[in-house]
Amino acid sequence: MFRHLMENFVQRIARIVLIISLGFVPSEVITPQETAGVTYYVDAMVGADGNDGLSIGAPWKTVAKVNRSAFSPGDTILFKREGKWREKLVVPSSGTAGNYITFGAYGIGADPIFDGSIIKANADFSAWVPTVVSERLRDGGFEVWDSATKPRYWHKVELGTSAVNKETVDVHGGSFSLKLTVDPSNSLAAAVCSLHMKKSTAVTLTLWYKTAAGKTARIKLADSGNNACLKSDGTWGIPGTAINLPTAMVWTQFRINFTSHSLYRDYTLMVSRLSSASSSILFADVSVVAIEPSDNVYKAAWTMGAGLEPMIWENEMRLVDALFRNSVYRTPGSFYYDSVNHYLYVHASDSSHIATNGKAYEIPSETENIDDDENEYISFNHLIGRKTYSDDSTLGGILLTGRHNQVLSCVSHGHRRHCLSFYIGSDSCLADGCMFYDSAVTSPVTFYQSGIVGHTLKNSDIYNGKSRIIIIHGNVQNSIIERCTIHGDSAHSAAWAVETFGNVSGTMIRYNYIYGHARGLLLATNDENLSMYCNMIDSSHFFKPTRTLNYFAAIHLDACANSVFYNNVFYNGIGHALKQENNSTGTIFKNNIVYGDNYISVESGSETDSEFDYNLYFNATGTPFNWLGTACSFTIGKSIRGKMRIP
Q: Are the C-beta atoms of 377 and 93 separated by less than 8 Å?
């Protein structure tokens, strides 16, 4: 009964804090102060770059025209709603403190879109070609070794003094072959690997082998349950069936065509020898190829820069990036990019013919949508940026490198990297009333690198990061995150709402609603003067860890100094509300509500100048505190600290 009452009480308190912190009192949206300037219009449908652009009746057409034009402080450039530009906006001029240059929208309908992609026509796709079924047998089968005695994709079987080793002298078609040496007692020497094959599919198995005079090599292909084995005539036989290969004193190819079993997908392939005491047999260049149907997976020639990774959309749906070329065949709604041969393979979501299904396939062609190009006093209003790709040196989405710039009521999504970047050189920029989501490999928002100061992210919805939602790193100072909804994907074990590292200082996180993260709200490393207050934090969706529960916390301070936490509500799962380690000193944790199975963990060296006063703790039983490595109850915790108490 008491627990039920406490749960209801905490939920009521959480709602009150959420109402106060997220302000169902509308916050004021900051708009630039502007004097009368010139207004330009851009219309993707009926515009023409030969127009003067000064009226709705004579608009420009392209973003390129905007990029090469000069603007004056106070000017406004408006893009027609319902318009789409497959171009990158690069700001050509700066405004001034009292006269921003504004890039916005006019008309009715959806906000203007800056698409970082191009449409790949259905006719550009040609038929799917035969592909290796098992990616585990790539690189010639025996070409990849983790050490002189350990092949990467094969498991060695060595009985007695028989041995399985890398051969570097007697090879075929590569740098290495596999050598099976049998001891005088005819003990087993073999190598085994796993295969995955689609049911009832035409397959070709080839390999090269070499034996001594009168000696016999053998292969055995069986389903993983050893219910059926491949016979030399290409049919499936009883368990234990193996194929004996004729004596071959020079390198000889063995080839067999067969149809994979109608019941099984998983197989093992073993290469070995028939009883041949004190003898050696060599194998090389194993290849398992399936002639896949050409009616559902297609490829197109596509070349990207070094280090770049593509994405692809089908009718606005982002397809899954298959890890291997063969896996795209088995996965509708996926793609694979062959960066060596420069082909893009695509499997339609409904397995239809890409060349004839009439769906639109888009491939990114830009690294950013909007770039202020180090100009200052710029305002971006009601614009949408999406579908960019990048390597790790470019950012994607909206890139801010200037001073006093504003991103107001914009949407940025569907990027390989960041949707919004407060980047090197930027200072005192604002993002207000925006949505940033769906970054494929990293966080939707980043505050990045030395020298950037005083940025604010507010009243925005940020979610669907690959691992973190917001990253602040590299000597960034005095950033503010307030009145935002920040939510993640608990399926990712590394999903923090906010991660700060690299001597970040003065970060303030306030009035936010944060939930759905696999590890928690904040991971801070080597930072100082962090403050958090009036946040509603639901960390009940923790990823179920294989490590100790002590590793996971809503807030994890690692070698931080002088962090302050006031008036927050923590609704915890399995982890602590706060964990301090590696001499994270000077932490003040006051007036918070903590509801969960664990409360606070403080490691040795982190207790200095730290205070835990006037907090309310609910729900936990047993030993929810961890003090200097010792798990303890509330009563014991109070006697140790003297400050862990309910007022």
A: no
